[in-house]
Amino acid sequence: MSEGFQLDRTPLLSRSPVQLPDEQREDPEHAAALWRDGLVLPVDEHGRVPMEPSGRLVWHRPEDFGADSGHAVLLGSYDGVAYWGVRVRSRGSGTDWLGLRGVGEWLGDVAAGLFTTAVGLLAWHDRARYCALCGAGTERIRSGWARRCTGCGHEEYPRTDPSMICLVHDGDDHVLLARQVVWPAGRFSVLAGFVEMGESLEGCVRREVHEEVGVSVSDIRYLGSQPWPFPRSLMMGFAAVADRGQPLRPAPGEIAEAHWVSRRRVRAALDSAEPVDGLWLPPGVSIAHRMLRGWADDEK
Hints:
Elements: H1 22-26, H2 28-36, E1 39-43, E2 48-51, E3 73-78, E4 81-87, E5 96-99, H3 100-103, H4 109-127, E6 138-141, E7 146-149, E8 155-156, E9 161-169, E10 174-180, E11 191-194, H5 201-213, E12 218-228, E13 233-241, E14 255-262, H6 263-270, H7 287-296
Helix pairs in contact: 6-7
Keywords: Hydrolase, Magnesium, Metal-binding, NAD
Domain Nudix hydrolase: 158-283
GO molecular function: metal ion binding; NADH pyrophosphatase activity
């Protein structure tokens, strides 16, 4: 078997063909025209959107939300149509309100990309209402892609938090999986953590894996990335090798348990809609799933 496995396919949330040229955000007149002729996705305070029974997103006309786009964010354009997102309170309307984690893997590339951008961008606006420099209120500008302080004029732009996610394997037939303390029994995934100030991605891999399970790794290599708007992360996937003879020391208060799991068992769990032998793996919408699938199917 090869140690050079890759993701089995591009992660779903990384496949969006939606375009957002800078002039669409910068020119108010252009943005106003895009608003009048566009479609709008309502997103509630929990990051959920209305879904049709068929599994499609429910899009609205701009007039349902007012005459101008000052309260909306421009998500981008595709096939001649501009798409926007607005924050609303969830309400019953004959449709279900569902989140990206639950339905993301069933959406097409366009819908998944728009949903991802809407959730992340609106979450940033919720947290950027006051200036970090002087404390005055801020206002939305550039079609929702920046905020300007009403006091000192300082501008803030949407932030993305870099984080690593790493599939640690033994170079043979086992992968290291862990369960966070907040997860239900049986739910396992690969290891992940946020990049700290002054730290490289590879340094983050080494530090997080050692902190979470007490294992040292080598042969770190990049696999791919995926936006993860919970609330605003960019997950950068890596693979690394560790000696299976090292003792596992789950971090107290963070990791409930960690185990080396065989390729056969991982493959069976990925192929089942239900937990297999007590093992429940990440859903298809996540890069973790694509990493595990790529590794599990790499047997030569």
